[in-house]
Specification:
Length: about 280
């Protein structure tokens, strides 16, 4: 073999090795990237709970994992919303939303995912799905009108729960998904197109695959300027959810609150009002 061919082979071997190392590092960091749990103290949680008039709850998931959560009771409840936040969120992080929901007559149940502040265990897709069922059990004991809200990662949790409940013959009152994805793997493909994420990702949250099973009125909200999860994810999710209503927001990014805007709240009230009318017939 000629010297230049040997050098070419060495360079190729180095490049392949570097690529494989980069992929290996990426795969090893999956949990930290998907579940970057915030660090807040027990004192912070207690202070926020008192300020919101929340009752602290400790539901236990089916695998025995004890979770930290809140219930916030509406003075004249119309029903209950089970709230699933984004991957960097925690109970207590959305006081404006809590107040708006409570004032509108919706009591709130929110549970921190396993491994998040106050909750035991380590996060995983299977674990979060168990946490969702534990939160649902709390809410369904409070009312027979329970709807589900999920933002970002919480949208994947919410769609999966709504599909499971629908398959069991007990669909939720309604489903609202804000700034979420068609699947988490697709988000990763768009973020790191050079890596074969579909081959090694364990956390998949394939919402589009589960969405056709949902038997509940649904609303999909998304910002048109969302650079983390592009608006085409909302389009794909809307097509998969039977009869979903879709609302996009020009100029809104991933972390902007959409459901409490004038347009978002009006769409939510139409959705829930129609569900109430259907339930009363």
């Amino acid at each position: 073999m000629s010297p230049w061919r040997k050098r070419l082979h060495r360079v190729a071997a180095v490049l392949v090795g570097a690529y494989l190392l980069a992929v290996g590092i990426l795969a090893s960091l999956e949990r930290q990237m998907v579940f970057p749990a915030p660090t807040v103290s027990e004192g912070w949680l207690a202070k926020r709970a008192k300020a919101q008039g929340a009752e602290v709850i400790a539901p236990v998931a089916e695998d025995g994992t004890r979770l930290y959560g809140w219930t916030i009771a509406a003075p004249e409840p119309r029903g209950v919303v089970v709230w699933f936040g984004g991957n960097g969120g925690t109970v207590g992080a959305h006081p404006d939303m809590y107040g708006r929901m409570r004032d509108a007559g919706w009591s709130i149940v929110q549970v921190n995912y396993r491994g998040y502040p106050g909750s035991e265990g380590e996060p995983s897709e299977a674990g979060l799905r168990m946490d969702a069922r534990a939160a649902w059990a709390v809410a369904s004991a409070m009312s027979d009108r329970v709807w589900i809200y999920g933002k970002s990662l919480g949208g994947g949790v919410a769609v999966g729960l709504a599909a499971d409940l629908s398959d069991a013959g007990h669909p939720p009152f309604a489903l609202v998904v804000e700034s979420s994805f068609s699947s988490l793997v697709q988000v990763a493909r768009e973020s790191v197109p050079w890596a074969p994420v579909g081959l090694f990702m364990r956390t998949r949250f394939d919402s589009v695959a589960r969405a056709p099973e949902v038997r509940a009125p649904s609303l999909v909200l998304h910002g048109e300027a969302d650079t983390l999860i592009g608006p085409w994810h909302a389009e794909a999710l809307s097509r998969a959810l039977p009869g979903a209503t879709t609302l996009t927001f020009p100029g809104a990014g991933h972390n902007d609150a959409l459901v409490t805007t004038e347009r978002g709240w009006a769409a939510l009230e139409r959705l829930l009002g129609a569900a109430e009318a259907g339930a009363s017939r």
